[in-house]
Design brief:
single chain, about 300 residues, alpha+beta, 4-stranded mixed sheet, two-stranded antiparallel sheet, about 40% helix, globular
Length: about 300
C-alpha cells in the first residue's frame, strides 16, 4: 500500500453480528446492499477459524483449485505447507455464507482448522458456545489437544488461516483473468447427479446429465480462452463476467418450492439435515415429500 499498490477489484472486509440469531447481520446487510452484492466476484467465509489442527474447506467447486494453490504457498505451523484434510465439499448453511451462496448465487468458500473426533471424522469442540470457550482454553487446547497441536499453537494456526484467506482474496482481486475452474464444478455436479439417480432408479436425470455436459463443454471453452496470453480489454472483462457470474445462472427466480428464500438449485441445507448440504435440493425435497405422502397413504397395519 505504501508503494501505491491498489487492487484491481474492490475488497470488502466484513465482521458480522447476529450470526447465532439466524445469520441476521450478514443476511440483512446483503439484502440491503443487493446492488453491491450483485457485483461480487466471490465471498470468503471464516467462522470458527481454529478449534483444532485439521484444515477443512468447501464451497463452490469452481474455487476449489484456487484454494489448493493458495494453501500450497502458506507455511504450516508444524513445517512444510498447508494441506487440506479430506476433500473439498459442498456447504449448506449454518454460517454467514448462506445469503451470498444460497440466495444471491455468489461463488463462496468456507474454511477452518477443526479437530478430529471418533473414527477420524471432524468434530465440534465441547466448549463451543459456553463460558469455558475462553482465551485460556484456546491457548492450552485450541490446536487440538493431546496428541495434536502443542499448547499455544492454536495462534499459529490462526496466522496460517489468515494468510490463506488474505492470499486467496488478493489473487481474486488482482487476477487478469479470474482463477475459476468451472470444469471442476461440472465434474462435481455430474457426480451429484449420478448419486441422485442411483438413489431412485425411477428418476429420469437424462436432461440434467445433458445440461451438465453442455456446461462442461462451455467450461472447457472458457478455460481455452483464459489460456491466451494476449487476452485483454473488453475480451478479458467479458470472460471474467462469465467466470464470476455463472453461479447466478443456477438460481431459481421464484426460489425452491416451500422455501422461497433459498434460490440455488445446486445446493441448500437439507430440510431435515440441519446445516448439512444437499445437492439438487429442489429434486430431493420433491422426492422426500413424495415418499412421506406415499407413507401417509399406506393403510394402518
Amino acid at each position: 500500500l505504501k508503494s501505491g499498490w491498489r487492487p484491481e477489484r474492490t475488497l470488502v472486509l466484513c465482521s458480522w453480528s447476529g450470526e447465532e440469531y439466524g445469520l441476521l447481520g450478514s443476511t440483512a446487510w446483503a439484502e440491503l446492499n443487493e446492488g453491491l452484492v450483485a457485483q461480487a466476484v466471490a465471498y470468503l467465509n471464516v467462522d470458527t477459524a481454529v478449534s483444532g489442527n485439521r484444515l477443512s474447506a468447501g464451497g463452490t467447486f469452481a474455487l476449489r483449485d484456487l484454494f489448493s494453490s493458495v494453501i500450497s504457498a502458506v507455511d504450516a505451523p508444524d513445517g512444510g505447507k498447508l494441506e487440506l484434510e479430506g476433500s473439498w465439499t459442498q456447504i449448506g448453511s449454518g454460517s454467514d455464507y448462506a445469503v451470498f451462496l444460497d440466495h444471491f448465487g455468489v461463488a463462496s468458500a468456507d474454511f477452518a482448522f477443526e479437530r478430529t473426533g471418533r473414527g477420524g471424522k471432524t468434530a465440534h469442540y465441547g466448549q463451543y458456545h459456553s463460558v469455558y470457550d475462553s482465551f485460556d482454553w484456546m491457548a492450552r487446547f485450541g490446536a487440538g489437544g493431546q496428541g495434536a497441536g502443542k499448547p499455544g499453537q492454536a495462534f499459529e494456526y490462526m496466522r496460517a488461516l489468515s494468510q490463506a484467506w488474505g492470499l486467496m482474496a488478493l489473487r481474486l482481486a488482482d487476477a487478469k483473468v479470474l482463477p475459476f475452474n468451472h470444469s471442476a464444478q461440472a465434474e462435481a455436479l455430474e457426480s451429484f447427479r449420478a448419486a441422485l439417480a442411483a438413489e431412485d432408479p425411477r428418476l429420469d436425470t437424462s436432461m440434467v446429465k445433458a445440461a451438465i455436459l453442455e456446461y462442461a463443454q462451455a467450461a472447457s471453452r472458457a478455460a481455452d480462452r483464459a489460456a491466451h496470453a494476449d487476452l485483454g480489454g473488453q475480451d478479458a472483462a467479458d470472460l471474467n463476467d462469465r467466470l464470476a457470474f455463472t453461479e447466478r445462472r443456477f438460481l431459481a427466480e421464484g426460489g425452491l418450492p416451500r422455501r422461497k428464500w433459498f434460490r440455488s438449485v445446486l445446493q441448500a441445507p437439507g430440510i431435515d439435515e440441519g446445516y448439512a448440504p444437499q445437492s439438487f435440493p429442489g429434486v430431493r425435497d420433491a422426492l422426500t415429500e413424495g415418499a412421506v405422502a406415499a407413507q401417509q397413504l399406506l393403510p394402518e397395519p
